[in-house]
Amino acid sequence: MRNRILLAALCAGTLAGCSDKPLQLTNPNSATILGANADPNALQLTATGLLSDFRAPRTGIMSALGRFGRESYIFTPQEGRNTTNLLIGITVGSKTEVDPAGLYQTLWNYTALRNIYNFKSSINANGNLSAQQKSAALGFAKTMEAAALLNIISYTDTLGLVTQILADPTQLAPFVSRDSAYKYIIASFDSALTALAAGGSAFPFTLHSGFTGFDKPATFAKFASALEARAAAYYATGGGGAATGGGGAAYWTKAQTALAASFLNMAGDMNVGVYHVYSSATGDVLNGIDPVTNTTLYAHMSYLTDAQNKADGTMDNRVLNKIVTGLGTRQGPVTSSGPTSASSVIGFKIYPTSATPVPVIRNEELILLNAEVKLALGDAAGAIAALNITRQVSGGLPPSTLTPASGSTAILDQILYEKRYSLMFEGLRWVDMRRYGRLNQLPLDVPSGPNKNFVAIVSPIPQAECLTRAKVSGAFLGPNGQNNCAP
Question: Around Cβ 141, how many Cβ atoms within 10 Å?
């Protein structure tokens, strides 16, 4: 009775807050865009969340692509698939391919893309932001979208991907071809750059320390341009140029334009760039590929056998600075066909602690992209000059003896050597070798058996995605009727 009197008194004093209708409460587990806009902290939290999504798969990607590209091994005797899946594949009918089950879900990073879609929707609906602030935030989001899609298509390649995020998350958007994917990605970077140019002097949120020097719309645009240069170079080659689905000369020119707008500095610090950051703070994560906590990660022995020497006869500085020797010998799981990989006694010291940042893109890569661009556009002398920068500064090696008369193949050989050692274990070598049609030059570690010559060409569409699409007629088909779930 006392409680009823108290409730009546409260209603009498606050008529606007009481009625005979059922009480309506917002469900905190079902957030809406309008609800998020009403929270002054929401914009910062969602921007931070997008960066966390962007970082989440990175070290797993580097580990998988390192094995595809014969840069690294994961030796786990109790889990042989860490070796066999990536080095010998599985036999399906008459084909050998990478097993799509389990390992590659993190590469298919569509949770991040859904969150980016929601973020863009919230920006457009946010009445608390100025036009400049909205433009800056949208430029940030479009860059994150293009970067996420670039990561995916560089793994799936000819299998294509899905570019469209639908308002209804239960609906399945179609796959598009590699060609369409790259065009969409590059157009998205262009759209991001237009928005950033109109974004004023600051973002309406703070970026983490991995963006130091790139945390304003104008400087962040240099980061976006750097990624666009990578995308344009990837599309220009596309596994062998325009004849095999690449963009050709027009996109080498696009890469050249993007490099000019990026933070490329031919005489600058090789390590300037944007990084994923890690820490042991509550709620944060560790990078997962440091040698202290990841004792199963080994480097490929070919880094020693293929390294060139300095004038004094000692090895390329990039080996000395990035490779640790003298580890215990590890060998891959033994099957009826023998070991599935060669033994290794070396590891990486690139990321010495579990809080060491991991690069997204840095100046050293841009210098070598510039060498690629110059070679493709007919400036052989400029390509040699560019590759010699990393060769001498990072490697401590004497200048290359190449001249323009050496020919484009010999110059490309040297560019790819420089990229291999300068960008060691950054998740790039397998992609570089594929887009230049050189996967057959990667080391083969299986001594015998039907799959001894297997090198993965693409990373498969994850099995979970394929099983979902198999329930909807035609949902897994690309624009030419290709079954994207059958590499």
Answer: 24
Chain centroid to Cα 84, Å, comes to 23
| Crossing angle for the helix pair 249-261 and 363-376, to the nearest 10 degrees | 150
List, for residues 51-93, the tens digit of each pLDDT value: 999 999 898 889 889 989 999 988 876 777 777 777 787 777 7
Whether residue 304 lies inside any domain: the answer is no
* Rounded CA separation 461/152 (Å): 10
Q: Do residue 147 and residue 207 come from a single domain?
A: yes
**Residue 97 φ/ψ, nearest 5 degrees:** -150, 170
Q: Write out 203-220 in H/E/C secondary structure.
A: CCCCCCHHHCCCCCHHHH
Residue pointed to by tokens 């390992």: 103
Record the tokens describing residue 63, joined without a space.
């580990």
Residue 226: which domain range? 33-56+109-262+457-487
> Which CATH number belongs to the domain containing residue 237 in this structure?
1.25.40.390
Is there a domain that residue 385 lies in? yes
Number of domains in the chain: 2
* Beta bridge mates, 327: none
Please write the tens of the pLDDT for every residue from 187-228.
999 999 999 999 999 999 999 999 999 999 999 999 999 999
Record the tokens describing residue 238, joined without a space. 């596309």
Instruction: Tell me the one-letter amino acid at 381.
Output: A
Neighbours of 401 (CB within 10 A): 8
pLDDT value of position 22: 46
- Quick one: 188 and 253 in the same domain? yes
Does some domain include residue 82?
no
Residue with tokens 């963009």: 247
Residue 210 vs residue 343, higher pLDDT:
210
Structure tokens at 127: 């009445």
Residue pair 147/118 in contact (Cβ under 8 Å)? The answer is no
- State which amino acid sits at residue 106: T
